[in-house]
Amino acid sequence: MATTERMVIGVAGMPGAGKATVREILQEMGYPAVVMGDEIREEAERRKLKPTPENFGTIMLKLREEEGPAAVAKRCIPRMEKAERKVIVVEGIRGLQEVEEFKKRFPNFTLIAIHASPETRFRRLFQRKRSDDPEGWETFMERDLRELGVGLGAVIATADHMIVNEGTKAQLKMKTREVLRKVLGKWMK
After folding, report:
1. Which tens digits make up the pLDDT trace of 43-73?
2. Is-contact 127 176, C-beta < 8 A?
């Protein structure tokens, strides 16, 4: 399928904002997804590093240093091209160079940013207890600063759509469906 025939929905947000939940909602609706963080986790495994926030952060920065600021996006594109559906979701965009890389390859690209307050995000991450989640506020803030340092704030600020996620999963699902209707409605015109 030609990349011009595809619609790519990018999902960005700070850690704990709800990116994965939005991706899961879209997947439940039948849209395949590529998770950019999986590329970082796989690279950590290839380098035989423990799955910690520090190691994942180091790898994220190292890949960008070694292969350029769009390195993770470039690594994800082959997975996206293999998807058999016309609408694909890519979760975890962190830099404007990644957005540009996706737009070059997939002209029908739209970006949704998920936003939640630091307190809400910290509580979610602390409760989630994934191996790369912070154990304390200091680690949480270090991770936030690292994410902002690679350009995530600019990505969020320039998103086509914004979902504020301070409520329940049901509320997020409703907001996600509303944004998806707008996105697909515009694309299908």
Report:
1. 999 999 998 878 888 998 899 999 999 999 9
2. no
Secondary structure E strands in the chain: 7-13, 33-35, 87-91, 109-115, 161-164
**What is the residue extent of each domain of the chain?**
3-187
Contact of 53 with 132, CB cutoff 8 Å:
yes
- Which homologous superfamily does the CATH classification assign to the domain defined by 3-187? P-loop containing nucleotide triphosphate hydrolases (3.40.50.300)
Strand partners, 162: 113
pTM of the model: 0.91
Q: Is 127 left (phi over 0), alpha (psi -120 to 50) or beta?
A: alpha
| Both structure tokens of 132 | 């790369």
Q: Are 126 and 134 in contact (CB under 8 A)?
A: yes
* 85 closest CA partner among 187, 1, 10: 1
Contact predicate 56/41, CB 8 Å: yes
CA angle 8/13/14 to nearest 5° reads 155
Q: What is the pLDDT of residue 189?
A: 59
Gap between the Cα atoms of 5 and 68, Å rounded: 27
